[in-house]
Design goal:
disordered N terminus; single chain; about 60% helix; alpha+beta; eight-stranded antiparallel beta sheet; Helix Hairpins; Glucose Permease (Domain IIA)
């Protein structure tokens, strides 16, 4: 048997499982092989189209989540502002009531005098047994007193009106806050729905293998601090990329050899497009290229005042490598820029920690959240929600920015 015939038999056996290999290959056998190859190509195209469709769906969901997260943070800002105004109104009411109370005796005396004046009008002086001079003097004094008492009565009215107005303002403010919180809860509910939708899609995609996740978990347990953790993650990433590169090279060689053998038999093989890995690589390259240009324009990952600055001494001999902001209870946390999640989970001293790689050696660290809404290997858009703060009145989000594993001041990058 010729070498060519032997090879065709081998191809037929490989593509048609369980079939017997004939001693000679007929034209029908060759057509069957061609048909099998075409079916495989069609299947590959369908899978590629499905992958692209899922990718578009995820992209659209991510964009919607970015918009929704911004709306949530804007409502958080509005609610915080209303609550701040409410505190000021309540303080003003206390001052007004205290001022009213301190003048209580004077007000009582004033009201008593007004009552007497009403009971004894000015004309009654003329029937009193007084001299004409005393009557005139008394009338003049009473006229002046009447004006004073009228002025004091007006002051009383204004103060009471002021207190009443402040109470109404407080009631209005409380109503606005209640509406704002209702709106906030509605937005959170919609966000949870989007997250569930995205999670369901990602389960089918298997963004990151369980083996890789377990490796990262072990690295976190072994690392003593963030720097060591990042070093370990970087070595793991390089090893993973090398293994993936070798796997692709091996697949490419095998595919080339297989296609060359099929070509010898006159079987045309269409080249399947493999855009998924390229898309991820392109995403990170574009992110790395644009990150440096985003200096001074990054959004704050959560809304709130800064309570610990970069480089500030937090304890004797220890300075902060990042910043801390006091957030609202259950505040929404977002990614400050496009990137890839390289760590998401608990880490010693940080609680629940998220590390996002932005390329070109830049990465951001976010810690202090109660829940994490992203996973290792996930591609994030700037502004995409990644977690939520605890339900507490004393919540702090820690933010750190690093370049080549060295901390840098985040405030130089965050927009005012």
């Amino acid at each position: 048997m010729k070498r060519r015939d032997l090879f065709i038999c081998f191809v037929v056996a490989a593509l048609i499982s369980g079939s017997a290999v004939a001693a000679t290959v007929s034209k029908q056998d060759l057509e069957n092989v061609q048909k099998q190859v075409q079916q495989q190509n069609t299947k590959q195209k369908l899978l590629q189209q499905e992958s692209e469709k899922v990718g578009r769906e995820l992209s659209q969901i991510s964009k919607t989540m970015v918009t929704k997260a911004k709306q949530i943070q804007n409502i958080e800002d509005k609610t915080s502002g209303l609550e701040k105004e409410l505190l000021q109104l309540q303080e003003d009411l206390k001052v007004a009531e205290a001022d009213f109370t301190t003048e209580d005796k004077n007000l009582i005396q004033t009201l008593y005098a007004l009552q007497n004046l009403a009971l004894k009008p000015t004309e009654s002086l003329f029937v009193q047994p007084l001299s004409p001079v005393d009557i005139i003097r008394s009338a003049m004094l009473l006229r002046e007193t009447s004006a004073y008492l009228s002025e004091e009565a007006e002051k009383i009215r204004l103060k009471l009106q002021n207190i009443s107005d402040k109470k109404k303002s407080i009631e209005t403010q409380l109503s606005k806050i209640a509406e704002s919180k209702t709106s906030l809860e509605k937005e959170h509910a919609q966000m949870r729905k989007l997250m569930a939708q995205k999670s369901a899609i990602q389960k089918n995609l298997q963004t990151q293998s369980q083996e890789t996740k377990q490796k990262i978990k072990r690295l976190a347990e072994q690392a003593k601090d963030v720097k060591e953790l990042l070093d370990k993650l970087e070595r793991e990433r390089l090893a993973r990329e090398k293994a993936e590169r070798l796997r692709r090279e091996k697949e490419a060689r095998e595919r080339a050899e297989r296609e060359a053998r099929l070509k010898e038999q006159g079987i045309t093989v269409e080249q399947p497009e493999t855009t998924a890995p390229k898309a991820s690589e392109s995403f990170m390259k574009d992110t790395a290229k644009n990150f440096a240009k985003a200096r001074g324009r990054l959004p704050m990952p959560a809304r709130g005042p800064i309570v610990v600055s970069y480089g500030e001494e937090t304890s004797k001999g220890v300075t902060s490598k990042g910043i801390s902001i006091k957030t609202r209870s259950q505040a929404q946390v977002i990614s400050p820029y496009d990137g890839s999640v390289i760590f998401a989970g608990p880490f010693r001293g940080y609680g629940k920690l998220i590390i996002i790689e932005h390329g070109d050696g830049y990465m951001s660290l976010l810690a202090g959240m109660e829940s994490i809404d992203c996973e290792v290997g996930q591609m994030l858009l700037a502004g995409e929600p990644v977690g939520q703060m605890p339900k507490s009145n004393d919540t702090h989000l820690y933010i750190e920015l690093r370049k080549n594993n060295k901390p840098i001041d985040p405030l130089a990058w965050i927009a005012n």
